[in-house]
Amino acid sequence: MISYTNLYKGKTVLVTGHTGFKGSWLASWLKILGANVFGIALDPLTEPSHYASIKLSNEINESMPLYVVSRVAQYFNNNLKDKKILIIGLAYKSDVSDTRESPAIKVIKILRNTGALVAWHDNLVKFWNGEKSQEILDYDIAIIVTKHANLDLDKVRKIPYVFDCLGSLESTARQ
User: Fold this and answer.
1) For residues 144 and 163, is the Cβ–Cβ distance under 8 A?
2) Domain extents in the chain
3) Taking a C-beta distance cutoff of 8 angstroms, is the pair 135, 121 a contact?
4) What would the DSSP string read from start to end of 46-70?
5) How far is Cα 40 from Cα 140, in angstroms, rounded to an integer?
6) Contacts of 146 (CB under 8 A, 6+ apart)
7) Which CATH class is domain 64-170?
């Protein structure tokens, strides 16, 4: 194993770049090893600001569940009360069972507030929030939020109205 104990002892090291975890960690590590650390930190650019772009993209992502529900509601004259709706894909992303930060959960909450009768189907998530994944059977509406590789699209196509957030179906006329 290589020992760095004396490699930096008494040496002057210049650390440059943007500040953050990696920069501060590196400076701390070098000081522990005995180096004289000096640094030049660059302020983040203000125009165009990458931070503003990240914030905007996050705002767009956070608004998508409401957008999806509004698109479905428009098709039904803004009346989803008592409509049987199946959310397909509860997981956060395809082919995993992790539901943390899943947009499908937000879609379910919004739909239930409209008076819709909402169930969900996910081949990989069998139980969530005291509920069980339902079979793809007799529903008025299906909303594909997350598609796993083993999703039976033939069953989905039998539902009268399908809003496909992912473009999983060949025909865009279904959304």
Assistant:
1) yes
2) 12-42, 64-170
3) yes
4) -TT-HHHHHHHHHHHHHHHHHHHHH
5) 61
6) 88, 89, 90, 91, 92, 93, 94, 102, 104, 122, 166
7) alpha beta
40: which 2 tokens? 């030049």
Residue 30: both structure tokens together: 């070098």
Whether residue 3 is predicted with pLDDT greater than 90 in this model: the reply is no
Which of 80, 161, 77 minimizes the C-alpha distance to 173? 161
Dist CA 146 CA 92 (whole Å):
7
For residue range 97-136, what is the model confidence (pLDDT) as tens digits?
A: 999 999 999 999 999 999 999 999 999 999 999 999 999 9
Instruction: Quote the pTM value.
Output: 0.70
- Residue 23: what residue type? G
What was the pLDDT predicted at 43?
Answer: 59
Res. 6: pLDDT tops 90: no
